[in-house]
């Protein structure tokens, strides 16, 4: 999967500036990144070089332990009963959902 395949817009985009001293900081939208478990970063362009080299990406924030809630209420079907799962959208001859 590539970023072109994603159906969503990015949560935030940055216009990067050349930073030979590594001192620039880019503020993020805090509300968008308050509960991040996975972060993907895409660099579609560079500053005219043939290759892109990234030496350091630093992230600031507060770490909080992930709270995983186990399943508390669920229905379990040991063997499916087709009579319980009738669908009007299925054409019996072709078995395609319309």
From TrEMBL:
Residue span(s) of domain PITH: 1-79
Bias (Basic and acidic residues): 1-11
Region annotation Disordered: where it falls in the sequence: 1-20
Membrane-spanning residues: none
Signal peptide segment: none
Entry GO CC: cytoplasm; nucleus
Pfam families according to UniProt: PITH
UniProt-listed InterPro entries: Galactose-bd-like_sf, PITH1-like, PITH_dom, PITH_dom_sf
UniProt record similarity statement: Belongs to the PITHD1 family.
Protein name: PITH domain containing 1
Organism listed in the record: Bubo bubo (Eurasian eagle-owl)
Taxonomic lineage: Eukaryota, Metazoa, Chordata, Craniata, Vertebrata
